[in-house]
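Worked example (supplementary).
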Amino acid sequence: MISTVALLLWGPAALLGTAILAGVVSRRASATRLVYGAALVISVALLVTVAGHLAGRPGEVSAITLPLGLPWTGARFRLDGLSAFFLVVVNLGGAITSLYGLGYGRHESQPHRVLPFYPAFLAGMNLVVLANDAFAFLLSWEFMSLASWALVMSHHRDEANRRAAYIYLVMASFGTLALLLAFGLLAGPAGTYAFDAMRAAQPGPLAAGVVLALMLLGAGSKAGLVPLHAWLPLAHPAAPSHVSALMSGIMTKVAIYGFIRVVFDLLGAPAWWSGVVVLLLGGTTAVLGILYALMEKDLKRLLAYSTIENIGVIFASLGLALAFKANAMPSAAALAFTAALFHVLNHSFFKSLLFFGAGAVLTATGERDMEKLGGLIHRMPVTSFVFLVGCVSISALPPFNGFASEWLAFQAILQSPQLPQWGLKVIVPAVGGMLALSAALAAACFVKAFGITFLGRPRSAAVERTHEVDRWSLAAMAVLAIFCLLAGILPGFVIDGLSPVTLPLIGDRMPVQTAQPWLSIVPIAESRSSYNGLLVFVFITISASLAAFFIHRFASHALRRGIAWGCGFAETAPAAQYTAVSFAQPIRRVFGSFAFRARETVEMPAPGSLEPARIKIDIHDVAWETFYQPITGAIDFATERLNYLQFLTIRRYLTLVFLYLVILLLVLALWP
Amino acid sequence: MALILQLAVQGAQMLLVLLLAPLLIGFVRKVKARLLRRQGPSLIQPYRDLIRLMRKEVVLADNASWLFRVTPYLIFAATWVAAALVPTFAAGLQFSWTADLIVIVALLGSARFFQALAGMDVGTSFGGIGASREVMIASLAEPAMLLIVFSLALVAGATQLSTVAAFMGSPEVGLRVSLGMSLIALVMVAIAENARIPVDNPATHLELTMVHEAMILEYSGRHLAMIELATFLKLLLYVSLISCVFLPWGLAHAGAGPKALALGAVAYLVKLAVLAILLAVFETAVAKMRVFRVPDFLGAALMLALLGALLLFVSRSL
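After joint prediction of all chains, the assembly is encoded as:
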């Protein structure tokens, strides 16, 4: 009997095989269909295998050591509850993205730059989740980064894309370095690279603190925690849209997997202040991420910034779980941890859906700039409907899935007055307020995203000629929209499905939800709080139908089309509509002055002049200016100085070498 | 049998909020008019308005989409469901566990989301200005509301409204600073959410500072009737919410007999009348503020709510 993990490893192997094959045949016309079809089949096979494992033996751990990699380490792989859950996220996302790619990929101008790397990227993400030693983990992590880098570079003729890819590469290397150091600390002087050995060894408090900081740098930079997010809104939109969906919806989740694996699993019992750090970072990330998104007028960049917000929400829940775990409150920790994982799943659904929608808009109109779109609801009815479902879900509105996970997070926050530490007592309600603020701003942001892109009148000629996209893309988006609704109205099944993940890591699980009457979710007790998405959905449907029936039966049916009311002035120019920038203006005035140092200056023409008046908006990325510019400045300065070494005479070089040798020998001689 | 009775009470509650909502608006308008020494329209004028709107034809802008036509029903349904889940005369009804206070707030958020989208559908500047200001107000009012929910939940140990109402009616509540702050914040949020003076003026059209009316400017006929009814329901919802949490006297509790239910109904009507008069007096006494003063107003509500929640995190007895 072959173990499940060995069976699962055939998946990445097959994906790598597909990648090599794609490298050979990618210039042929049929290559697109072949590669995405193969990726779809393999992802579905992986998904079925994991689902079978979860259904049959959810708590079982299966491990394998392969004679790969360095001769004395080998490569260890392992499947447990946590990796099984993230495998579901990765492969569900991978399968639906491949389905979308079957249609979307045909519009790709240079398929040979995308096709070989796409399956390799999927393989990398699968391997990260399965890895069971530091070597295999880092290798797969780096492989995943490089494959996605190649995909970001696929449209390399655009200067902006090259810059995005460069920044991404630098940040990814930096992140891997942080992870390498974290694993080095965990491995200790014995150099045990296997996760099992790390789990058994308990690091001291100082080492644990440093590992946490390094994980926040390493996994946090990949996930997009503020202030390490700078690369994300550049790189994610630069890739082809289905790859953007994978990067935003799935790869950030793999980064979260890395964080959970180390901090919750390998690091042992957390200190209470680690919860404070993660909570604060999460809350700040959520609010700043969505504020950036609101200021954006490029649809794909808006979505990328909104990913940062959702990562913040997930990290805030994880921080809460850490705080509860440190204070031995396992049931509350299980609630917060479940909320985080549920949001991981939900975000992978709706963010993929939204990026697919943005991709559909991009193929149909050739535009990402919202200021040139508008009125697409008439020309792309299906895309606009599913995009609307995604917008409602991501805005945390009932009865869709985003609300279910945010509701759980709020319930977890309400458990926190029992925490003993004052730091946590003050931080938790503040972070709760930040999460509420980010949820409200997310709704504002997606009113803007949908309203400017799909509603109103067309703002450019390109939109007038558009039509609906192909069936493959529509099918992929429809599947995700259905998932968004299902996870929202039947959250109990998801929560129960998450119990094999929380049980080993937290030591507790949420109460069984599917046994509740009417499929409500009840985190603690029905008298305290409960939510029934199914009934809310049914009630809304019934009330709306009742109202529609009543109106149809008793009210007037007369309907007349006329021109819109413009106070007597018919607005003919579509440019007179509200735009993305003007829509965000009130919020920019309220929050922008401190978050972005935003300034608006109006340039009035001289009296009598017929020049138009101009408004100039000045927005600063504070994180970029405070953290990145000094660092890049320092590096520039140092390299300028070191450049001097390039122009020495041979004698001086020999002197340098000699001095270096002497110093080295001295160090060796004096080393105790 | 008990289930049928329970369902009947729940159904009665749904009908009650639907029927009372226009009356509440009529009453507020009447009191405001009397305060200004005007005769004012009759109490049942809002019903007449609704019926008249239903009979009129709908004039739809040329490029209005399906979303524009579906939205009135969605707004109405979400608001109605939310209003029916707030205890009015009785708590602990059959379906009260369907949604707690967070869900009720979020349901109103859903209604607002679609209303703002509908405002942008036709593509006029009025719709855009209304939608963009509405989401700005909501982005401050919603977190304030959630922090109020946190405070209530920490005092009562639940977000379930029936449990909160039962706890607030019990003698162990006492006077608490945090509850006072929550009450003030809740009133401020309610004023902003319902587009009342001083945040927005429900009585004008075509004023540059308007928010709510600008969003629905393109609506007419039966669509407008649904939206108006939803607006009425929302005011009733907030008044019921304030009265069930902060004035829980007379509220019938789970499993109460007909006598308690009748008493609850009378008490509810009295509370509605008192709060409506207070609202009318307040609206008559203050002037409408500039739209960019609204963030300060709501920021104060947010800070009060946060302070209340913080106090409770520090000590459960404050």
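Two points are worth noting when inspecting this output. Chain B has a mean pLDDT of 90. The CA atoms of residues 198 and 288 of chain B lie 4 Å apart.
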